[in-house]
Structure formats: C-alpha cells, structure tokens
Amino acid sequence: MSTATRQKPSPLSWLGGSTRGASVTRLVLSLTLFIILWQVAATYLVDNRLLLVPVDEVVVALGNEISSGAFGKNFATTFLELAIAFPLAVFGGFVIGAILAGSKPVRQTLDPILTALYSLPIVALAPLFTAGLGFGIASKVAVVVLMAIFPVITNTDAGLRSAEPNLIETARSYGASRTQVLRTVTLPHSVPFIISGIRVAFARALVGVIVAEFFGAIAGFGFAIAAAAQSYQTARLLGYVVVLGAVGLIASIGLTALEKRLAPWKED
Amino acid sequence: METNTEPGSIVVDGVGLTFTPPRRDPVVALEDVNLTVAPGEFVCVVGASGSGKSTLLRLLDGLLEPTYGTITAGGKEVSGPSPDRAMVFQTDNLMPWSTVIDNVAYGLVLGGMKRSEAREIAATQLERVGLSKSARQYPRQLSGGMRQRVNIARALAVDPQVLLLDEPFAALDAQTREIMSAELLGIWSADKKTVVFITHQIDEAVYLADRVVVLSAHPGTVREIVTVPFDRPRDLSLKRTPEFGRIVDHIWSLIEDEVRGSLGLS
Fold it and tell me: Considering CB atoms only, which of B82, B93, B97 is closest to A175?
C-alpha cells in the first residue's frame, strides 16, 4: 500500500477551489453567515436599540433614504470626493514613489518626513481642513489625498527598488538601455507592489472621506452618519455603514481582478 | 593571425580587472589574462572559487570593463553587450511576468524587432529545445531543467556568434545535467557557434570542450590551457575511458591545492 493519502473528496474541497462558481458561493455563504449572526445578536444578545437593531429595520430605513432621495445625494457627494481624490493620490503617490526610488539622496532626505506623516493619524487634521477649505468637497479631497497617498508612495518606491539584480543584468546583457530595463524589468516587477499599495490606500481613503465629512459637510455618507447619530436613528446610521462595507468589499474584489489582469504571472 | 578578426573569434589580450569597493581594499579579480578562442571553438573554463571565472565571462560579454588590457570579439573591441554575444546565466533569469515564448523573444524585441516576428523566431528555437508545448506558460509553471532550456533558447534566438554560459547546469540534478550537456553539444555542432562555458565540474568540461582553460585563484590568471584530443561526436561512454580520466586528473591536480585552500584546508 502506498502511503499517499486516499480520502473521499469532501464538498469542502470544491468550495476551496478557484473556480468562479466556488468564489461566488463562498461570498454568498459568508454574507449569509454575517446576516444570521447580526440577526441573532440583535434579537437575543443586544437589548440596547441605540447600539444595534435587526437587519430588516436597517433595510427599511435604507429604503426610506433611497426613496426620499437623500441616499442618492449623499452617495453622489462622497463618490465625487473619492473620484477626484483617489486617482490624485494614486497618481501622485506613484510619481513621488518613482522619484524616491530613482534618487538615493532625495529618498534619504525625505524619508523621516514621509515616515512621520505616514504614521500620523491624518484624520486628526480633518477639522483643520474643514476650517481652512470650507464645508464643500475641497476639504474632503485634501484629507483623502493625504490619507491615501502614503501607502502608494512607499509601495511604489519599494517595488521599483526590489527588482532582482540578476534580471537587470540579464536585460543589460541583451543590450537593454536604462529605459528598456525600466520598462521590461523594474516596472513589471513593481506592479503587484503598487496594487497592494492601492489596496491599503483605498481603505484609508474611505476612513478619510467619512471622518472629514463628520467635521462639517453639506452632504455625504459621513454627513448622513453624523446626522443619524445625533438624532439617535440607529437603523439609518447602520444602513449607511452597511453600504460603506459593501463599497469596501466591491473595491477589494475589483482590485483582485485588476491584479489578476495586470500581474497574471503571480501565484494565487 | 587573420583568424582573430573573423566573426566568432575572441582575443583576450593582457586583461586584468581590479574591483575597488568603496571604503574597502581593492580586490584583484583577474590579472594578466591572455586567451584566444577560434571561431566555432568550444572552450570550457574551470577553476576554484575566487579564480574569477564569472568575472572573465562578464568581461567577454561586455557587462564589465577591464581595468587594463583589451578584449576583441570578431575583430572589434568589446565596449559593452552586443547581439553578437549572448549570455546564459547560472540561474535561469527568466522574466516571471512574461510567458515562455515572450521570454525567448526578449532579446529580439529589445533589438527592435516586431513582436509578432520575434515570436515566430522564438517558436522555432523553442521547438529545438523541445518546449513548444510550454510556449504560453509562465516560467514558474516549468521545472528547473525546462526553465534552463528556455534560457538557452532565449540566447540562441538572437543568433549570436558567441555563446557565453556561466555554469548553466549547476542548479540541476546530475541526470538532468548529463542530458542537457548532450543537448548543448547537439546544438553547438549544428550551429557551430563559438562557446565559452564556465563550470566547476571538471568532467563536464573535458566532455564538452575542445580546450579547457584552467584558472588559478588570487589573483585569477590562466594556469594552463589543456587541449582535449577526443573526436566528435562524443557520447557519454567517453567518460569511462582511461584517457578521459587521465585528463580530468591532470586538471584536478592543477587546482586541487586552491580548492583545499578555499576550504581552509592545506
């Protein structure tokens, strides 16, 4: 007898697979589990209705927000802020990261500033931006850019600098110019780094935009959440939070798809 | 010596290379190396570690510049990498983000050839190394031996006059290495390219080469150039003949002390 494992294929092994059907099923299962846990917690564990209300009430509250048009307005505002700020952060972060990677003196000089700013809770500056730039979208864009830019900077810098010397030497032995080395070795190598920087950046951008809206806004998810909290409308508040969670989830799935497309050579 | 200007010839004339790392003592890697390789010749270079084998190969490719002396290839002074010479490194160094076929086409595309055209040539070379079926796979999906064959196909694709191989089979297991050596001999005898092949396996060197250059270490310089008298084509049974053993023993005696020294033995 061979010692190789001989097991009946369990249904779980299909679920652990990488087929599209399996990943959709996993997602549905995971969301269902979440809703069940929520409902159980709201019905049997948490009495305080300011803290938690059942899922169905949240759905109703969210439905009311949508039919009154408030949801659409808030969504549009937050979406616009992110749509301006996030690409700015990604592009700016990439350019700054590339400059740092390209010049050791620049990198060494700026490193302390960048480290300090990256570890700083930028949201602490949100009230300042609201005071300085007003209740409109400008103050939110500023906070989001500052929140999101640092992971892109550091990951771009790390990605561009960590290409294997062997591969660079190989490129040179085939007569590659500096630009060709950059295009055929350094850049492709850094793609997965940059994408994971963008992933972290998006999570930080969401935090940034919501907190910035807390401190004074005319519309937006953060504005709506703050307003709901002040009038003790837990269901309405949770409705917006759930949508935020969904946005984060969709962004993460989208980034995974983007990575598969831009870096198909990477192992899962 | 008119052969020295023919395509595929290499002349190393009084070459030395000293590395000067910042804030440390300079290291003499090679000292006064003289070597002439004829077009179509198969030359192996052996030596203890620290004898500057890889440094010599990088000088021949143009990746390094000699501190003194000159290197000419095909009658022209080497001043940098050129499509006339292709290098095969010990690690396969395939671009992980490119498919096998695009890796083989790499040198051609860098040289300005259209990708579709380069892929056609690459496909031919892949067929020669028996990897047509893997054309659209990524390197990580291949075994070490297959990746090293892709590496060789990439070098052959640019149709160089000189192939420079830096211990290309060192990372492979013994059986794979034997087969790969035989395949390399097949390719060489079909193309008649000049080959400079670095190895630390003395028997591999004697089996493959027309001449074996024995380098001594610290500083690296040519200790002796051993001519290998066996007819071609050679097959693996050659390795069991007494004459083969005698040449291997002779080369080993030339470098044994240095190998012991590098291990801290005396």
Answer: B82
pLDDT for B42-65, tens place per residue? Answer: 999 999 887 889 999 999 999 999
Q: How close, in Å, is residue A253 to chain B by CA atoms?
A: 22
Side-chain half-sphere CA neighbours of B233 within 13 A: 12
Interchain CB contact of A168 with B (< 8 Å): no
B205, B251 contact by CB (below 8 A): yes
Q: Is B220 on the interface with A (CB under 8 A)?
A: no
Residue B86 contacts A, CB cutoff 8 Å: yes
pLDDT over 70 percentage in chain A: 96
Which residue type does B129 have?
V
3-state secondary structure of B7: coil
The predicted structure's pLDDT at residue A208: 94
Alpha carbon distance A264, A257 (integer Å): 10
Q: State yes or no: pLDDT of A6 exceeds 70.
A: no
Could you write out the DSSP letters of every residue in A23-62?
Answer: HHHHHHHHHHHHHHHHHHIIIII---TTT---HHHHHHHH
CB atoms B106 and A188 under 8 Å: no
User: Which value does ipTM take for this structure?
Assistant: 0.89
**Would the pLDDT of A22 be above 70?**
yes
pTM: 0.84
Sign of the CA dihedral with A201 first, then A206, A209, and A210 last:
negative
Beta strands in A134-262 (DSSP E): none
